[in-house]
User: Which sequence fits this backbone?
């Protein structure tokens, strides 16, 4: 008898505990809609938080950055192939000086080009086909090279970009240079269109007018590389990263002495590789501040340290052991900093030049019908999607393809699918749906093609929050999804033969401050490739293309709209003309093609440590402006 | 005996190679996409992609790649012996990466193992001897806690209480004992306890159960009849007989932790082998994954062998079988 | 039987009662058992399993868990009551002055220690002796109990010994400190017949050589017949009959003893003459009222079910028994039985 009694008591206890736990769980509030009014103002590029200043900028100290999990470098910091945005911030602020550079400020000021290694930003001659750059004198490489930078070093870097064995990842930007593709195809050893008539001049000849060419010469891969060291790493992409020779104000710790031979060259101790856990930079002793009007170079050292525990990173930032972080603050951290009067100013939020969107495949039902695509834009609850990201502090709700900051503020009021509170409009969506062949005039997507549509999502907590929002909205117009969540969804949606109808995963950021970096890779037919494809919607695809590139796309390819011509026209233009042209392409895409449902222009949020005395946001790299920060210690 | 060991060693090598082979199959058959894409930039041409694949050796079928790996392992490569190749991500030598991180993981395991073995067995003995008293119930309650608590929660709690609030121990992060032994200890003590907690709980329960069973054996009665002190009876006669399954378990637990202490390494920012392996798997960097798997497989097979030998050493009945 | 009041008396047990409380009730394992043992005496304790014969001896040795057992009565050893001794004092006597040998020598020796080691351990348990000295003593004893090549066999493990040799080793272990009393609990049950005889002989030799008292517990009357000086028959935790061995065998007084003798196979009886005792031993949770044997007794009559017969001597020439039958009936029935056996 006693035994049964004991059992009954235990059972009751278990039931009670479960009920308690369930009660506690269900009463969790939805993540705080932050009361912070940090949503950037509608004029693009809010400079509200662009800079932080605590009065005393001084020379000295070590600026420590806690970096989450792993560096994630795409080419081990080797500038020829390094494509990671956070790596660009380090390279262009501290380690290398391409011909053209930036002031590393926020907003429009930060997107304005300046001469870095070059004395100024040249205008093209020869009907827009020739660019002549004059190098500053007195710029020296760091140890172990120690000599003056010459034009030949720039030419060498460009040739390295062209050689396919050296791992370049954005070489396609330089196809417009005469002779570049001959090197790529192995038909020539050097680029015929780039010459160094003397030690201080570089001349570049293009095959066509390219309005944003100077932007392309500001990318880290074009910065000078000493051939004597570069030769040690021919055909070994990434290895140069551990022996990177500085042409700027800082260098990798451990670079010392004189260079004798390739075999004597050991990796610098300050950087253990992309799989390593530290990157330590110290001042380049050969750096001449008088050649550089823009970099302030306050700290003596920069330490980038890997930390596998995100919680720990923010603890250390708050405690002052780290000054900055490469991580994403949890909602808890955002709340803590957002609501505490003392901490609020350490939370820096800036426009990130990045659009997040749902991508719809123009070849797959039901998205092969423009009315369905428009209805999706009308019905989507963008406010709820932003809430899933963490609320208003995460950025502005996106209403078209490219963030307004890239039009210098243009199209800031353009919202073709506006709805009250941006939560979606059932009435407008249904009105649009009625016009669709899939609806039988009911305003709901009723055909069988509307049910169980395959949607690919990723497996982050964020996707788990977004997917139900998307499903709920689409259901209102009769579309239901079969959701497949894949870890690393990009690979799947970038494979054309998989014919994915819709995905919530993608986002796209600029490579430099020109809308061409959006349109060319996202919406031209030339950009469509079988693997690694970023024209997810397959805008401009034709049956011939499908066959010739072996894309494996199914569905009706005969009526897919194309924007190849307008984009090609804009590519040649310059100045405000060019910007207006891009704005037109944006509008065409949003009204006549409708490949996306854009929903967020995300901010870049940085939490600073208490020892930081000055901080700037670098609009070019969408990261910390390391060349301008100051720390006390 | 020597022949037995030699035979076992050969068999170990075969097993390890099979494990690596399976790793290769899994890596290439799993639908995670083409690793070359990661290093190809935003919009690679087919040509670029092909070049990267060729450079990384990805254009050959999996068994060729595996064959090359096996060959290099025995013959060495440009980085010396054993030849483990270079990583996709940075071209660094896998061997140097692993050798650099292995000591951290080994130190973590060693400290935790000592802790859990002694604590677990001690608690188990006390529990068995004071069966059904308050001490026993508390001990088994602790065991339940230790087994049920998720390691990451425990680690974070430890950090919060003992580092943030009380400041008794160092925080996350690793300091090499060569640099400063006190710092090393203060940073390792919490990870040791966190990692040991789960195992100590298991071992406490196992010891308790084994010991209780053993204490019912006839030779225990004989030992008491001889007039031995109760302490001698329990420790020398009882524990000795109960320890053999525990020793076996101990060997395997240690071996499995070589690549497996991922959560503890992650929470305490120790940057050891487990963490390296997971990161590399996520970034599809096969050479590192293969290297760590190799190390772990060797560790398991070796510990297996050691435990078998130890077992024969401990239990004479097995020796002449 | 009143114990002889001389200095040869070793053990005087009075009214020993052992009860185990269990969730299902109280198990009355041993009830009111009294006996004595002198030097040079072998007391055979006979009974089925569950009769309480082993438990009584465990109680004497103090091997029962005091927290979970209720033990009453007196066990006087050399004037001291073992039941009231503090545990440490009792431990000092155990293995030194009173030693016990158990039934299954294979399970009774620790499988992971060498035989010599275990015997040497018995030495150092009570004496501060150096290891090699203790080991030498172990070899000596092994040799004494008749193990050939004692020196090298001492280094063997128990699983390398045969059954008989293991039992010899157990006896050697018990003899380490020249105990005054040797309790043997079913020492031959696990051995085959030829080895049995050797072991019994060894025990007898040891008894004579060291002039000790031996309690020999067994369910086999045949074993007792060879070596015992006195015999105690137990059933359901109580004594049924107790007296000199000769008397028990020539003039058994209790129906249970008759049943035991009748069911015992021996070389000179025909198989058909074997008569098993009907029924099964009673539950010790709820022992029968009155005489515990009455449900199975062919001779039960009116008082047996309700009144428990006391253990006393029915006639001056008789020995102790616990049965309501009259002396005349006992004699008559005994004679009848003898005739049947002879036939």
Assistant:
């Amino acid at each position: 008898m006693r035994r049964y009694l004991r059992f009954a008591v235990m059972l009751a206890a278990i039931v009670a505990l479960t009920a308690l736990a369930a009660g506690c769980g269900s009463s969790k509030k939805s993540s705080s809609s932050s009361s912070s009014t940090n949503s950037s103002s509608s004029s693009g590029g809010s400079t509200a938080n662009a800079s932080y200043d605590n009065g005393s900028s001084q020379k000295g100290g070590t600026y420590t950055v806690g970096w989450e999990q792993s560096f994630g470098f795409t080419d081990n910091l080797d500038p020829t192939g390094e494509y990671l945005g956070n790596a660009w911030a380090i390279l262009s602020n501290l380690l290398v000086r391409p011909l053209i550079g930036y002031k590393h400020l926020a907003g429009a000021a930060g997107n304005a080009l300046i001469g870095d290694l070059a004395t100024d930003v040249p205008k093209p001659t020869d009907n827009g086909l020739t660019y002549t750059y004059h190098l500053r004198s007195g710029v020296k490489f760091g140890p172990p090279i120690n000599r003056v930078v010459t034009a030949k070093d720039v030419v060498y870097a460009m040739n390295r970009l062209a050689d396919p064995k050296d791992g370049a990842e954005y070489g396609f930007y330089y196809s417009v240079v005469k002779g570049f593709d001959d090197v790529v195809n192995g038909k020539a050893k050097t680029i015929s269109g780039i010459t160094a008539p003397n030690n201080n001049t570089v001349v570049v000849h293009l095959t066509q007018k390219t309005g944003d060419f100077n932007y392309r010469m500001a990318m880290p891969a074009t910065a000078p590389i000493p051939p004597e060291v570069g030769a040690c790493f021919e055909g070994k992409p990434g290895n140069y990263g551990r022996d990177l020779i500085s042409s700027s104000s800082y260098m990798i710790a451990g670079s010392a002495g004189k260079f004798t031979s390739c075999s004597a060259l050991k990796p610098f101790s300050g950087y253990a590789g992309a799989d390593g856990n530290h990157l330590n930079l110290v001042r380049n002793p050969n750096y001449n501040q008088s050649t550089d009007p823009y970099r302030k170079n306050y700290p003596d050292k920069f330490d980038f340290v890997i930390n596998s525990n995100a919680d720990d990173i923010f603890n250390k930032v708050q405690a002052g052991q780290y000054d900055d972080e490469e991580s994403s603050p949890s909602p808890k951290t955002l709340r803590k900093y957002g609501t505490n009067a003392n901490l609020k100013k350490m939370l820096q939020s800036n426009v990130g030049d990045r659009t997040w969107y749902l991508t719809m495949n123009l070849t797959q039902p039901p998205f092969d019908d423009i009315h369905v695509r428009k209805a999706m834009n009308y019905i989507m609850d963008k406010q709820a999607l932003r809430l899933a990201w963490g609320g208003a502090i995460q950025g502005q709700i996106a209403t078209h393809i490219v963030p307004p900051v890239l039009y210098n503020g243009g199209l800031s009021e353009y919202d073709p699918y506006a709805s009250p509170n941006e939560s979606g409009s059932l009435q407008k969506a249904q009105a649009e749906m009625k016009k669709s062949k899939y609806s039988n005039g009911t305003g709901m997507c009723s055909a069988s093609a509307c049910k169980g549509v395959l949607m690919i999502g990723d497996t982050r907590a964020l996707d788990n929050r977004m997917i139900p929002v998307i499903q709920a909205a689409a259901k209102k117009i009769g579309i239901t999804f079969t959701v497949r969540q894949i870890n690393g969804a990009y690979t799947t949606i970038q494979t054309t033969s998989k014919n994915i109808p819709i995905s919530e995963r993608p986002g796209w950021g600029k490579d430099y401050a020109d809308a061409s970096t959006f349109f060319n890779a996202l919406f031209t037919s030339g950009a469509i490739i079988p693997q690694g494809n970023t024209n997810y919607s397959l805008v401009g695809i034709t049956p011939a293309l499908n066959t010739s590139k072996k894309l494996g796309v199914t569905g009706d390819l005969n009526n897919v709209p194309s924007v190849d011509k307008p984009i090609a026209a804009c590519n040649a233009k310059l100045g405000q003309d060019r910007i207006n042209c891009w704005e037109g392409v944006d509008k065409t895409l949003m009204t006549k093609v409708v490949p996306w449902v854009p929903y967020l222009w995300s901010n870049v949020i940085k939490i600073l440590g208490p020892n930081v005395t000055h901080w700037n946001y670098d609009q070019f790299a969408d990261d910390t402006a390391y060349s301008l920060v100051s720390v006390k210690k | 005996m020597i022949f037995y060991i030699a035979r076992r060693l050969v068999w170990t090598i075969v097993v390890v190679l099979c494990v690596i082979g399976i790793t290769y199959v899994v890596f290439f058959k799993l639908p995670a996409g083409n690793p070359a894409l990661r290093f190809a930039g935003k919009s690679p041409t087919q040509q670029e992609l092909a070049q990267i694949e060729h450079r990384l050796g990805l254009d050959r079928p999996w068994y060729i790649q595996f064959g090359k790996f096996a060959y290099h392992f025995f013959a060495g490569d440009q980085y010396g012996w054993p030849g483990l190749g270079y990583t996709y991500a940075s071209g660094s030598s896998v061997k140097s990466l692993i050798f650099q991180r292995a000591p951290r993981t080994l130190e973590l395991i060693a400290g935790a193992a000592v802790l859990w073995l002694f604590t677990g067995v001690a608690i188990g003995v006390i529990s068995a001897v004071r069966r059904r008293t308050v001490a026993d119930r508390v001990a088994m309650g602790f065991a339940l806690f230790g087994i049920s608590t998720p390691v990451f929660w425990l680690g974070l709690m430890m950090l919060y209480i003992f580092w943030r609030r009380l400041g008794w121990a160092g925080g996350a992060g690793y300091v090499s004992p060569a640099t400063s032994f006190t710092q090393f200890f203060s940073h390792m003590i919490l990870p040791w306890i966190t990692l040991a907690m789960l195992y100590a709980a298991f071992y406490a329960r196992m010891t308790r159960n084994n010991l209780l069973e053993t204490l019912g054996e006839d030779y225990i009665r004989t030992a008491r009849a001889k007039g031995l002190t109760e302490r001698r009876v329990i420790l020398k006669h009882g524990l000795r007989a109960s320890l053999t399954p525990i020793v076996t378990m101990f060997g395997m637990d240690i071996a499995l932790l070589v690549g497996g202490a991922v959560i503890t390494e992650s929470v305490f920012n120790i940057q050891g082998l487990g963490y390296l392996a997971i990161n590399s798997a996520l970034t599809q960097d096969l050479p590192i994954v293969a290297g760590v798997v190799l190390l772990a497989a060797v560790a398991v097979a070796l510990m297996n062998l050691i435990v078998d030998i130890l077992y024969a050493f401990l239990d004479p009945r097995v020796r002449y079988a | 039987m009143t114990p002889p009041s001389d200095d040869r008396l070793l053990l005087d047990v009075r009214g020993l009662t052992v009860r185990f409380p269990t969730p299902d009730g109280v198990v009355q394992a041993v009830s009111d058992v009294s006996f004595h043992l002198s030097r040079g005496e072998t007391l055979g304790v006979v009974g089925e399993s569950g009769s309480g014969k082993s438990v009584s001896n465990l109680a004497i040795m103090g091997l029962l868990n005091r927290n979970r057992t209720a033990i009453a009565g007196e066990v006087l050893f050399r004037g001291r009551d073992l039941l009231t001794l503090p545990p440490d004092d009792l431990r000092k006597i155990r293995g030194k002055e009173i030693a016990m040998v158990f039934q299954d020598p294979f399970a009774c020796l620790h499988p992971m220690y060498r035989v010599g080691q275990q015997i040497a351990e018995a030495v150092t348990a009570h004496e501060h002796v150096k290891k090699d000295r203790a080991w030498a003593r172990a070899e000596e004893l092994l040799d004494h109990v008749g193990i050939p090549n004692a020196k090298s066999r001492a280094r063997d493990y128990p699983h390398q010994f045969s059954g008989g040799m293991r039992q010899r080793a157990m006896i050697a272990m018990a003899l380490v400190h020249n105990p005054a009393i040797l309790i043997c609990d079913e020492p031959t049950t696990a051995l085959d017949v030829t080895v049995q005889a050797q072991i019994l002989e060894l025990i007898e030799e040891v008894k004579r050589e060291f002039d000790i008292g031996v309690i020999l517990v067994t369910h086999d009357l045949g074993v007792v017949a060879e070596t015992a000086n006195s015999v105690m028959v137990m059933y359901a935790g109580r004594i049924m009959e107790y007296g000199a061995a000769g008397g028990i065998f020539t003039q058994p007084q209790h129906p249970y003893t008759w049943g035991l003798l009748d069911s015992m196979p021996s070389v000179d009886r025909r198989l058909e003459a074997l008569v098993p005792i009907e029924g099964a031993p009673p539950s010790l949770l709820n022992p029968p009222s009155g005489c515990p044997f009455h449900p199975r007794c062919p001779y039960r009559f009116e008082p047996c079910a309700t009144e428990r017969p006391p253990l006393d001597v029915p006639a001056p020439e008789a020995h102790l028994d616990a049965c309501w039958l009259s002396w005349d009936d006992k004699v008559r029935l005994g004679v009848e039985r003898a005739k049947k056996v002879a036939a």
